[in-house]
């Protein structure tokens, strides 16, 4: 039986993937084998003894102490692309709300209560000029980060008749395949910023992107550009953005992350982190996260981890030994020697590494004793060991 502790509300579509005979799932569990969560900010104290994996039903893992997990051999998963369409669609809304004062127009009509139909008609026709805007067609969109979301946003904007410029110095081959060849490549952030009427951010919250939209970056924007940030709050220096809004250097800031300094301004539109909050995205993320956890806990396979290598080995015996270790020489050979000393035959095996972590799957012919498992745990640089039967 594996114990899964959930944080946040996880879609039933995902929860129902776990068979009740093999998994117990609850929000109150003391010694969890795995955690399943969305944006809940994990503390180090949430990483209980015996924890094997954490699955983030979503994209961003900035709420998880990933480095600490790697040191402890805890596999961290996310669900790349599972909520990308939801974010793409909210960006479409953001672009339209940026181009036209639809919110102002709606509020204006709301204020007409008490008027008769003729008065409303007169007010609407006289007042509407305050809310006119521009079309997206023909404007330039700069997309910073062309991963699962950025690529979809870029392709969508081309369909709207926009010119699209993208910037992503670490574009993966998979993302490049998804991206239309009509997206123009910017050599650096500044060259994207100074050509764009709208700029949308789709980069992860990591050290390298912290404060990416800084005072210096703001100087590169076209006068009166509109900035959309549905990625994370840390990517934007809010003092720089509010100063730019004050001078008109930026026309609007549209974001999914509320902050006190943004409230009450007419030039900001702020959503309560709604980007991935559609039924479809919640179902997709939860299902993907659940299936990744299940295959890892039941078979030791790893797909879509942010700190471990991808690895898949078809089961060939009833005894599967998995272990992770610091990525240094001789660990695997030392473990194999221990098995050989006990005359235990390895039928199939796979070893993969990523950065400082190596992970191994060994299908063996017979059950290892508890003493042997303990000996493997004692091998220098081994972080953790599991026997999956
Ligand atoms: N508002 C929401 O509800 C919501 C929903 C989903 C994701 N997000 C945020 O959006 C982020 C992106 O999601 P995704 O699914 O597209 O992730 P992704 O990993 O598929 O794509 C991120 C892209 O950013 C690129 N990148 C990294 N550093 C960069 C830099 N310095 N400059 C330019 N590009 C850089 C990467 O190479 C990658 O292609 C997530 O990390 C998350 O923080 C927010
Ligand atoms: O990184 C993500 O996937 C989004 O920010 C969604 O977060 P949520 O699952 O809390 O809506």
What percent of residues adopt helix (DSSP H or I)?
25-40%
Q: How many strands in all?
A: 16
Question: Count of helical segments?
Answer: 13
For CATH, the homologous superfamily of the largest domain is named as: NAD(P)-binding Rossmann-like Domain
Ligand roster: nicotinamide-adenine-dinucleotide, 3-phosphoglyceric acid
What does this structure look like?
The structure is a single chain. It contains 13 helices and 16 strands. The strands form three sheets. A seven-stranded parallel β-sheet has the order 8-7-6-9-10-11-12. A five-stranded parallel β-sheet has the order 2-1-3-4-5. A four-stranded antiparallel β-sheet has the order 14-15-13-16, with helices on both faces. It has 389 residues and is an alpha/beta fold. The chain has helices at 12-15, 66-72, 84-99, 102-110, 117-127, 148-159, 173-178, 189-193, 215-220, 238-247, 279-299, 331-341, 370-378, and strands spanning 2-6, 23-26, 34-37, 53-56, 75-77, 140-144, 163-167, 184-185, 198-201, 225-229, 250-255, 268-270, 319-326, 346-354, 357-364, 382-388. Strand 1 (2-6), helix 1 and strand 2 form a beta-alpha-beta unit. It folds into three domains: 1-83 and 279-308, NAD(P)-binding Rossmann-like Domain (Rossmann fold); 84-99 and 134-270, Rossmann fold (3-Layer(aba) Sandwich), CATH 3.40.50.720; 311-389, ACT domain (Alpha-Beta Plaits). The protein is elongated. The relative contact order is 0.12. The structure holds nicotinamide-adenine-dinucleotide and 3-phosphoglyceric acid. Residues 58-60, 80, 83-84, 87, 144-150, 167-172, 175, 202-205, 208-209, 230-232, 256, 273, 275-276 line the site of nicotinamide-adenine-dinucleotide.
